[in-house]
Amino acid sequence: MIKFLIIARIKANLMKKGKVSQPRTSFKQKISLILLGLFLFFVLLEVGIRLSGFISLSLQEIKNRAVLKQKGSYRIMCLGESTTQNQYPPFLERALNQRNIGIKFSVIDKGIAGTTTLNLLEQIDHNINNYHPDMILAMMGINDRGEYISFEVVNTSRILSLFKPFRTYNLVRLLWLHILAKVKEIGFCKLNEEKKRSGEARIYLSGIGLKETYTELVSDKDSLNQNAEIYYKNYLTYLRLGKRYQDQSKFSQAEEAFKKAIELNPKNEDAYFELGRIYQDQVKFSQAEETFKKAIDFNPKSYHSYGAILVLYEDMGKPELVKEYARKANAVRSGHYNPETVNNYLKLKKILDKKGIRLVCVQYPMLSIKPLQKIFEGVEEGLIFIDNEIIFRDAVKKNGYKEYFSDIFGGDFGHCTEKGNRLLAKNIADVILKEVFNK
Asked: Which residues contact 339 (CB under 8 A, 6 or more apart)?
């Protein structure tokens, strides 16, 4: 040991004097270490993103699987989006069993945040075979509007197609879109005046995909169409960017993004609707009112804008205007339903009829039941409809929106608070027990 220490001491002294050189890391080794570090970072990021989603779904599935162990129970499966997933289903099970009618109820939560009726329908056979439900509750369709789907660049590259399944790729791509949208605020199209005079225009387009810029020769005749197409794509990017800032309560950045979206596409109501919500959140009521009315002017069928403005009038203490716009919102909703939602509801009923499973159609809180009933005109036999309009409007009028909704993404409704989910579950339970079990 003493000999080892003496040798180490001698080496240290020699290194100080520069007589013994330290091992150097070559350039290739440094590059390899950097690449390895980046690889490990993205692996850990990918695992983290997937793990968070997996944990959320796993916890939900663990609760659902417990239903299979309950022999002899009456099974109710709930279909829907984020307004269903981990929302009202557990409260519904409790509300049903608290009535003690001699039947054990088990509620299965198959809500999926951000999903559409098409995705729910694609999984229906698998879910039925797994859980063998006696009844299915469907409160779905709000995501079928497709108004905020970001522009997806079609890319035929085989290499890039290998990365698309990775969540990290999608995250990086979205961040890249946001960076491009911020950097390229000066404009997205520059015309080469010399070419324009000769009948040709060289258009420099700022892309929002993986390419930053590209040029394309088009005739002057086609330039307006080309220009409009690119402007529309970038409009969607700014709309998506604004919603991201809005979710983070960064109101000034969100306002800036929505105004840019309006500048690029001044006749589309979506950006006006979102901008109005920004003003409302900041208690800028007059600006919010003006902005919501612009959204309605550009799209008289914009039922979520009607819903948003009646909530605004609630906040402003104008009951007469609340009644007026509630009537208008219901009138618009009664005459409009997304075709995809209609088709998938009808397909769901057809599937369940063949399997002898009862379908219960639940309307979202605050919304009229009439549009939902209209879907099934002529084929409503065996259906149960649950109306949540009056019960929620009365509750909100008495205690305010914040008691029952954590947000109002739908205009005049949103995700429920615990109190809202309890109210929703109780109303559903009351209707089911009365209509199906005569209790």
From this structure: none
pLDDT tens for residues 117-133? 999 999 999 999 999 99
Q: How far is CA 189 from CA 194, 199, 213, 412, in A?
A: 15, 17, 10, 38
Joined together, the tokens standing for residue 42 give 């993205």
Q: Are residues 259 and 185 in the same domain?
A: yes
**Residue carrying the six token digits 């109820």:** 105
Domain around 293: 270-336
Taken in order 173, 174, 179, 181, the sign of the CA dihedral is: positive
Tell me: do 174 and 219 sit in the same domain. yes
Closest CA to 56 of 113, 15, 121: 113
Contacts of 118 (CB under 8 A, 6+ apart): 144, 340, 344
Distances from the Cα of 19 to the Cα of 15, 22, 224, angstroms: 6, 10, 73
Last residue of a domain, one of 312, 336, 360: 336
Please name the residue ranges forming H helices in 133-265: 158-163, 167-183, 193-197, 220-247, 251-264
385 within 8 A of 370, measured Cβ to Cβ: no
Decide: 108 and 67 in contact? Cβ < 8 Å: yes
The pLDDT tens digits of the residues spanning 93-115 come to: 999 999 999 999 999 999 998 89
Pairing mode, strands 189-191 and 74-80: unpaired
